[in-house]
Design goal:
Layout: H1 3-69, H2 71-91
């Protein structure tokens, strides 16, 4: 073989080796990143589930406050207390 051919073969071999090493490093880093992403997704789902529970509890609290503060709720409470007291007096 000619000297120029040996130089080209060595140059291409070194370039291939460098690209192979870089590809291996890239694959290892991508595997690590996917593991971290998986843990982040799991934690995000847990947070979303807890947030749904908190929102449901907040809706219940808002409904209770609305029932106690609205005119309909006050009238309903008054009528229920009035009818219970009237029924209690009649039975005695």
């Amino acid at each position: 073989m000619n000297t120029a051919e040996w130089i080209l073969v060595m140059f291409l071999s070194v370039a291939l080796l460098i690209f192979l090493v870089l590809a291996i490093i890239l694959v290892v880093k991508l595997i690590g990143i996917t593991k971290e992403i998986k843990t982040i997704v799991v934690k995000g789902q847990d947070i979303a589930d807890k947030a749904d529970d908190i929102v449901d509890k907040a809706d219940d609290i808002v409904d209770n406050v609305k029932d106690m503060t609205s005119v309909g709720g006050l009238v309903k409470t008054f009528v229920n207390k009035y009818t219970k007291s009237r029924n209690g007096k009649k039975s005695q």
